[in-house]
Model the fold of this input.
Amino acid sequence: MGCASCNTGKDGTPRGCKNNGTCGSDGCNKLTVFDWLGNMSLPAEMPPFYGVEVRFKNGRKAFFDNRDRLGLSIGDVVATEASPGHDIGMVTLTGELVRVQIKHKKEFMNLESYPKIYRKATKKDIDLWQSLRDKEAEVQKRAREIAMGLNLKMKISDVEYQGDGGKAIFYYTAEERVDFRQLIKEFARAFSTRIEMKQVGFRQEAARLGGIGSCGRELCCSTWLTDFRSVSTAAARYQQLSLNPQKLAGQCGKLKCCLNFELDAYMEALKVFPKMEVKLKTEKGLALCQKIDIFKGLMWYCYDKEWMNWHELSVEKVNEIIQANKKGEKVESLEAYAHEALPKEKEAFSNVVGQDSLTRFDQPRRKKSRKRNRGARNRRKNQKKNA
Done:
């Protein structure tokens, strides 16, 4: 967790700060960068870097120039320059690491070209900012009603007010191009502020909403994934996955981002595999590939018109047959090159944990029965003696 207010309570239940990513430590945001240069002093001849990184709603970040040399630290709420007016954000990085981030994102290093930070936010600024944040849900609901009234094929996913209330950014998703000129007029008339429309992708919307994936864990896009690369069905084909849209699609309706995670490993393993379209020439006829196993390095072939009889061959044997076919030679048969599977060894399981049988309570206790038998024997001996 990011801060002490996120810890668990006395009864073990999570308390939660209920700040929804706006806490002072900035640890609840997936875009948080650890300032590993914070405790290091600069060389004597090197001037300090006065660039500052500020975060706004929905993970939106921007770089600013601290021209007035304000003493800022991570978590401070500041008033920044905006067009028009000013905006309220939270400082996420200061010092030399900002220079590294600017270089990493390939932006201009000249701080004079960046907007400046006016001041640390006062209580009046924070109260106005909080009041605007509180009414964003109601504005979003009203904006959706207006869009539906104009029969626009779009969805208003979120609303973000500028810190001074001079502008409102409406985030929307749409599959096709939307003509929202009339929509902007209706929004300006209804909300009495400057309107800015910003389209976001379906993956970004799913990242903002969050959820649980089919793997049982929280969505990657809402926890750590920030680079949304394009995913194609070719990634599923290379991994020998069935092209089932219901299984390959995520909660955003697009192909799952995790299809790209292991794609490089599969591509590297497939370099030694011949193409499945290549036919093997044998004395018994042509052989066609039916299936491959990337992990075990095996391929299954069958003769033409004998589709039910599959022969298991290793990749080395298949490449050997292909090389012979290129020289104009035909191998005898697939059976001669068939892969001989080793018999599976029966695993001997041992009770390493020290657990007893699950049916131990169903069996009678032997100790008590022995005592009863001993008592019966003693009574019989006593009866014989008395007789």
Observations:
- Residues 19 and 163 are 17 Å apart (CA to CA).
